[in-house]
Design a protein that fits this description.
With 431 residues, the protein is of the alpha/beta class. The chain folds into two domains: 108 residues, Urease, subunit C, domain 1; 284 residues, TIM Barrel (Alpha-Beta Barrel). Strands 1, 2, 3, 4, 5, 14, 15, 16 and 17 form a nine-stranded mixed beta sheet that branches. Strand 15 and strand 16 form a beta hairpin. Keywords: Hydrolase, Metal-binding, Zinc. This is 5-methylthioadenosine/S-adenosylhomocysteine deaminase. Its EC number is 3.5.4.28, 3.5.4.31. It catalyses: S-adenosyl-L-homocysteine + H2O + H(+) = S-inosyl-L-homocysteine + NH4(+); S-methyl-5'-thioadenosine + H2O + H(+) = S-methyl-5'-thioinosine + NH4(+). Catalyzes the deamination of 5-methylthioadenosine and S-adenosyl-L-homocysteine into 5-methylthioinosine and S-inosyl-L-homocysteine, respectively. Is also able to deaminate adenosine.
Length: 431
Amino acid sequence: MKTLIKDCCIIKMTNENEIIKKGYILIEEDKISKIGEGEYKDLKDEKLNIIDGEGTAAIPGLINTHTHCSMTLLRGYGEGLPLMKWLNEKIWPFEAKLDAEDIYIGAELAALEMIKSGTTCFLDMYYFEDDICKAVGQSGIRGIICTPVIGDDWQQRIERFKAFYKRNNGSFDGRIINMLAPHAPYTCTRESLEQSAKAAKEMNCGLHIHIAETLDEVETINKTYGCSPVEFLEQTGIFENKVIAAHCVHISDKDMEILKKYNVTAAHCPQSNMKLSSGISPVSKMLALGINVSLGTDGASSNNNLDMIEEMQTASYLQKLSTSDATALSPYETLEMATVNGAKALGLEKEIGKLDVGMKADIVLIDLNKPHMVPIFDVCANIVYSGSGKDVKTVIVNGKTVMEDYVVKTMNEKDILNSVKKSVENILSRQ
């Protein structure tokens, strides 16, 4: 079955000037086979499925490069606390009560929320990874699901990851990819970090880790090891792998040179960093140095949603404010962070992140026919500054339509919401 999206504005993300005001996208199997301006002429194929894109903008599916998906169950829990107090007194005690079924339900909720707000691929660090893989795979979107390495049982976690990787990597038509995730330099021992780096190299997989999120972390690592978190991780061999580093808020010029040297991606999470008063990441400076910077939401407990369009707006505004430069992080550059840079971070730049012939058909149609979207002088600015996830009308992943005209086709929204409410009631009742 071929699918034709017609009469839409197309933001290809191949070049800032390469925006098609009205055109078409032809999908065959899981890939884009044709893309062009005007009307698609060859309409003889009786099996052609047509999606009317009139009044919409087509963009590549958004890529969330840092989240903890099942923390949707903790949305709004433990508000108004700084990071370490929030983690120790609220989050970690709550998480200790979660079981595999809770995690599965939380992952379902996350996938549902991401579909409805235009995210087609995400990078996740959380427990009960098999259950997350199952929920995400069934939803129809892409998930890079990691095994967290933290605590005294880190050796067992690394060994479990190796079996987990063999079970799940490449499953669900290749939409599930697995990575290893040592939690952070302040929660992992030197040995656990060194062994994580070694395991990732053996498995030929990427690593995901929190780096320099707070000043407390920087002070702790400096006191313990006499250097910055980035310098410490370089010593452990972590950066000899493909690394996506969440946050990178408190980093020096020397740290940035190290990130650049090893092609580390910084996954920027502006709303979480603001809410927890962690600080402002020097995104504009990193981009100017040639460091790849992608975008993430972090978990729904510190955001409080998984809306990547909202995250783009915050990212752009925050850099303008912090640099006192109104030209910092333009709408198109911000869109690049959420698409092109995200794909590069995950090593998937030849498959997703752009709309072009031969790329995977991960496509989001954004409704421009709304009061807050009119008039349109700059479509990228409208999306980033005026839009939200609620403007996402249709979502296609791997060539399959997972949401059309605001209706999710792969998940039962009512059942999921009811399951979440019951799950949270059960969790709160546990001692």
